[in-house]
Amino acid sequence: MQQNPGEILTSGTQGNLLLIKEDNSIQRLTDLKFSSDFYSLAKFDGDVYIGSSEGIYIYSNHKLNKINISSQIDENLVFKLEAAQSYLWAFTNKFILRFDGVKWEIINHPDNHENDEAFFSIKAGEKCPQKGYWFTVAKENSRQYFKQGDTLPNVKSDWGDVHWQFDGEE
Questions:
Q1: Over the range 122-139, which residues count as b (16 or more CB within 10 Å of their CB) and which as e?
Q2: How far apart are alpha carbons 170 and 107 in whole angstroms?
Q3: Are residues 163 and 146 in the same domain?
Q4: Which of 5, 36, 136, 138 sits between 20 and 30 A of 164, alpha carbons compared?
Q5: Do 86 and 155 reside in the same domain of the chain?
């Protein structure tokens, strides 16, 4: 991405954000403390936004900061950013995001199934994301019905943390 005339901004693994100048000198703009891989850059409203393996970052005033949008987005892969038509667009494996400079709008990706989120493993003690039958491998014959918002119970287990998995609505 062209930053200024004669300068190119590029990104890479482990939080690398590099400025390549016309004289072929390279300046690292970030330190080496990042585990996130940077995949995409877009300039929007004078700032540089970065799509990463762990959400979206902003590079502004020579500082890199993580943007907190939503728990659904903040630790997910953002593989593409694009500034177009007064919006910053971000693409994840599950969502499309649109930013107008003030507010982030999360749009469900049209190829996703409505109940995809239910197939994730949900830790005991967390809220049930979808009504239906759930089971845990930590306890034999554990299949039971929960309503959305119910707290998934913890059961005694020698296996460590207990996780519940969705098993349908019937």
A1: bebeeebbbebebebebe
A2: 29
A3: yes
A4: 36
A5: no
In-domain check, residue 1: no
The whole-angstrom separation of Cα 52 and Cα 12 is: 9
Q: How far apart are CA 89 and CA 84, in angstroms?
A: 7
User: What SS3 class is residue 151?
Assistant: strand
Q: In angstroms, rounded to a whole number, what is the distance separating the alpha carbons of residues 28 and 135? A: 49
- Determine, yes or no, domain membership for 2: no
Quick one: pLDDT at residue 113?
A: 54
Which residue range forms the structural domain that includes residue 42?
7-108
Distance CA 54, CA 49 (A): 13
pTM: 0.62
Residue 21's CB: how many other CB atoms inside 10 A?
13
pLDDT, tens only, 88-120: 999 887 788 999 999 999 887 666 655 444 456
Contact 108, 119 (CB under 8 A): no
Write down which residue in 82, 108, 134 finishes a domain.
108
